[in-house]
Write a structure and sequence with these properties.
By secondary structure, this protein is mostly helical. It is 85% helix and 0% strand. Helix 8 (194-236) packs antiparallel against helix 11 (276-301).
Length: 374
């Protein structure tokens, strides 16, 4: 009876049903995994950031190690140097904004006055009463939403302790990854059955190798974006050119959209400070730099093992932002780069040969010191 019932169902329907329940199981497992990661985000995010930083700093530590420096001393030197550079950049940005804020406020005030005069004397011919009522409406809206704004500020202030805790956890994880990341990976993979252990270790090494290449290449691309756009802003006399360039450098670590979003802030500043023509020139400059990055820098500094299709990058950033906000957008692309190499080597018939091919195809920034690191 059962056989007759099965025969009465189309083979296409049976195959579709078989695929459906398997896909549903995979989807359910993915949802559970994402929920676990979300609940453990306070731990997962610092560890992920630490892994990226370790991938960026490991070649310097290995180089000092090869030249005879003690491993602990090399890690301490590189970490302190990196923290000093980060603090210097942040201090520079804040100080430049503080120093340039009065000039920017004056420029914005003149722009607002000019806009008000244009609205009154231009083709709209708005009366002073209409302009006053519009201004009063804006002020009333701000006052009516003061509670929400204050609550948001207090909520932001309440996260300072969490941010500091996460930063400390990231710092400790970076130190231990640099000191013994290879040993940690060897220990973790002991949970894998022995016949597949070497394959998983080789796949992890290849994934970390791509992650290291991505981190270093992205740093170079971000530097070029900041120097090019910052130089253009300085030549045009846009206020706050240097801090804006620093923000573009930080934003460029989110591929495709990061530098564009932070660059839009430069367009706004140029609009208020110098007028529409300079704002349009700034926009053209940013678009030109983005094209240079997409068609020259990215192919040059990243090999086939790291490069990703633009659609995969955009979808990854969007998904990461939906799931985990700005941090998710920052971590999405390096995670995809890692998974890309990991899966390619894990599924290869000869993992070692596939791993060697990936490393050979990488751009010139890839260093062999990360070959066996996971």
């Amino acid at each position: 009876m059962t056989d007759s019932h099965e025969e009465s169902v189309s083979p296409l329907v049976r195959r579709a049903a078989a695929w459906s329940w398997r896909l549903l199981v995979i989807f359910a497992a993915a949802v559970v995994l994402l929920e676990v990661l979300r609940r453990l985000g306070f731990v997962v995010v610092p560890v992920a950031l630490a892994l990226m930083l370790a991938a960026l700093l490991l070649p310097a530590v290995d180089a000092l190690d090869r030249y005879g420096a003690a491993r602990g001393g090399a890690v301490a030197f590189v970490v302190i140097l990196g923290l000093s550079a980060l603090v210097a950049i942040l201090s520079f940005v804040v100080n430049q904004f503080v120093d340039g804020a009065p000039q920017l406020v004056d420029e914005i005030t003149r722009s607002i006055e000019g806009a008000r005069d244009w609205l009154a004397t231009g083709p709209l011919h708005l009366s002073s009463d209409q302009l006053t009522r519009a201004g009063d409406s804006i002020i009333d809206a701000l006052r009516n939403n003061q509670t929400q704004l204050t609550t948001g500020a207090l909520s932001t202030a309440g996260t300072i302790a969490e941010i500091l805790t996460g930063a400390l956890l990231t710092l400790f994880a970076v130190i231990f990854f640099l000191l013994g990341g290879r040993g940690i990976w060897q220990f973790v993979t002991k949970a894998v059955p022995a016949p597949q252990r070497d394959r998983v270790r080789e796949a992890g090494a290849a994934g970390f190798h791509s992650l290291a290449g991505y981190a270093r290449a992205t740093s170079l691309v971000a530097l070029v974006d900041a120097v090019a756009i910052g130089s253009g802003l300085a030549i045009m006399g846009i206020p706050l050119a240097l801090p804006l360039a620093s923000l573009i450098f930080i934003g460029a670590f989110v591929p495709v959209v990061g530098a564009l979003v932070t660059g839009f802030l430069a367009v706004i500043v140029a609009l208020f400070a110098k007028g529409l023509v300079y704002a349009l020139i700034t926009l053209v400059l940013i678009i030109a730099v983005m094209q240079l990055e997409a068609h020259v820098l990215q192919p040059l500094v990243m090999g086939r093992a790291v490069s990703l299709h633009p659609l995969a990058v955009v979808l990854g950033i969007t998904t990461g932002y939906v799931l985990a906000g700005v941090i998710g957008a920052l971590l999405a692309v390096p995670l995809i780069a890692f998974a890309n190499s990991f899966v390619r080597v894990l599924g290869a018939e000869e993992p070692e040969a596939a791993s060697v091919e990936l490393k050979r195809d990488d751009g010139p920034l890839i260093d062999a010191t990360t070959d066996d690191t996971g």
